[in-house]
Amino acid sequence: MQHPTHTETGTIRVSQVDRSRRIKLTSLLDWMQDSAYTHSNLLEIFSTDRLLARNMSWVLMRKLIRIESFPCLGQTVRLTTFPSALNRYFAFRDFKLQDEKGTPLVLATTSWAVFDLEKRRIIRTPAEFIRDFSAPGPPCLEFSQARISPLEHPEYSEEIFLRENDLDLNAHVNHSLLGEWSLSCLPDELKQGRLLKELDIVYRSECTLEQGSVISLGAAFNSLGNSEDGTFYLHSLKTADHSREFSRAISCWQCSI
């Protein structure tokens, strides 16, 4: 397989950071998506453009991201991505963000599925993709939770109204926004003095403009609770009437130094 891995080097720009001068979660997720798109088109068997020509596309099903250190404004970093596994239902892609010395800053593993743009449903991976695939290396991370439990008793909530600008080329809300919205219900006082260290998010259904608005829900995750690993929260993103769930997530926060 030609181009088994893909690496991009960049300097964190002012438009990518928050008031703490650290890269925003959406900026990080967007960069990962851009690098995955670029690499997929270098790999003929994974080409996004090739799928689009057949009225299909890749959609993200799950992402586990572990943050050792948020890169800051002006810092030069290197993002490497590669496909790590492939079967009839999912393609797995991993990411590693490093500083100039090669120190890992962020690790992520993701699972993707092929999406029929006309029928608006997940379909099996084309047979020729599987036949020609070989993994260039082991995954950066493993999903530690087989599944994420449903959120039954939310403690925090926030309503978010959808805009045309939230849609991506698949005509639904992009996964980077769903990730940000999942965390938005947590009050500022809970996040004060803490940094996101891990996010495991499962995307359960597509979100379109027809929904009008979504509700971000969250609660302390008592089964994990507070530990030396951090404080955990369970998240759910649903329609306003709670009849449909778009994503489900677990986040871990640690005190910033």
TrEMBL record:
Residues 7-131 form the Acyl-ACP thioesterase N-terminal hotdog domain. Residues 158-253 form the Acyl-ACP thioesterase-like C-terminal domain. GO terms for molecular function: acyl carrier activity; fatty acyl-[ACP] hydrolase activity. This is Acyl-ACP thioesterase. Belongs to the acyl-ACP thioesterase family. InterPro entries: Acyl-ACP_TE_C, Acyl-ACP_thioesterase_NHD, FATA/B, HotDog_dom_sf. Keywords: Fatty acid biosynthesis, Fatty acid metabolism, Hydrolase, Lipid biosynthesis, Lipid metabolism, Transit peptide.
